[in-house]
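Task: sequence design from structure.
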């Protein structure tokens, strides 16, 4: 009878070494794949978050409402809408929390913190005092906002303005253009643009002030 021959110590050590090398290579490859997947999914999540923010802003601006309030000093009724090239305050029928009723929105472009947001329920008064007591929350960190406002100059022409005061014009603009630019010029983030037409640009009880 032939006696069975076993493995030598050198063969066992060599086999264990090769196995360890293969496992190390597989682990390194798996680690790279997992990291790439995390980077891609995190980038997708950020893009999705920004898209949702832009969509929410678009809905809120399109649903802007020519809300009026009474100035107790002048005893006159004014339309609430204040905007310049960096800030915008308006009343909308859309709420971030999907609350029932009108909501006052205030968007602020900060060069350090990005685009900030304040919201409060809108009643029959001027919401500025209540907005001043609320802490702003980051809406789009890393971005700055630029606003423009569309006005009908005459029958045949329109014009974009860098400022709009509803208390003077007694109406809302026909549309709002919002451009969101990365705060860092060398950033890989893309510029986001939004053009929101405002359906309820005038209050049925107040005539808009004619354009000069």
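Answer:
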């Amino acid at each position: 009878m032939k006696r069975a021959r076993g493995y030598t110590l050198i063969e066992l050590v060599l086999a264990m070494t090769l196995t360890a090398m293969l496992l190390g290579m597989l682990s390194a490859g798996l680690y790279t794949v997992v990291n790439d997947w995390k980077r891609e999914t995190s980038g997708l999540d950020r893009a999705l978050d920004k898209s949702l923010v832009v969509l929410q802003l678009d809905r809120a601006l399109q649903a802007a409402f020519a809300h009026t309030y009474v100035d107790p000093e002048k005893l006159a009724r004014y339309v609430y809408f204040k905007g310049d090239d960096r800030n915008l305050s308006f009343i909308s029928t859309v709420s971030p929390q999907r609350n029932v009723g009108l909501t006052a929105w205030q968007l602020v472009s900060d060069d350090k913190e990005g685009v900030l947001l304040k919201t409060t329920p809108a009643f029959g008064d001027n919401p500025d005092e209540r907005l001043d007591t609320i802490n702003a929350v980051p809406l789009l960190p890393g971005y700055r906002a630029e606003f423009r406002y569309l006005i009908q100059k005459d029958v045949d022409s329109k014009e974009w303005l860098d400022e709009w005061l509803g208390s003077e014009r007694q109406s809302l603009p026909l549309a709002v253009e919002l451009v969101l630019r990365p705060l860092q010029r060398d950033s890989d983030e893309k510029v986001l643009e939004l053009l929101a037409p405002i359906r309820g640009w005038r209050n049925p009880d107040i005539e808009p002030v004619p354009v000069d």
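The first helix runs from residue 9 to 62.
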